[in-house]
Amino acid sequence: MGKQLGSRKVAFQMLTHTHPAREHAWKFLHTYVEANTVLNTDGAAIYKNINNWWPVYHNRDIHKKFEFAHTSEIEGMFGVLKTFIRRMYHHVTVTKLPAVVGEFCCRFSHPEMFDSPYEFLLITLHLVPTP
Fold first, then answer.
1. Structure confidence by residue, pLDDT tens digits, 5-19
2. Which of 15, 36, 38, 70 could form a disulfide with 59 if both were Cys (CB 3.0 to 4.6 A apart)?
3. What DSSP string describes 24-78?
């Protein structure tokens, strides 16, 4: 999951296994992160020398050393996601997790959606082009 600093814009990508690799990180960055932006990550090895294969300004926090200055926003986001799952669904199966995380990202990125039914329709409905 990624979050734009200082905003409510979030993006996510679900993996089918438990061990992400550098290729997965590259695909996520290529899809969701603009070149020449600031990227804050934890100290995972898949991000080592990331700026050599995607043009970003990379900051990293080593969580084992209790460094959380750069990643506190996304770590907080994971806490909000856990609370959302517990309060809304109580638990989630592996097969339903992508849909639940997608719902969370939509709700978090568009809080104005719940201001009125009109706002909800503006955000969720899109006209289909006709020939």
1. 888 889 999 888 888
2. 70
3. HHHHHHHHHS-TT-EEEEES-GGGTTGGGTS--EEEEE-GGGT--TTTHHHHHHH
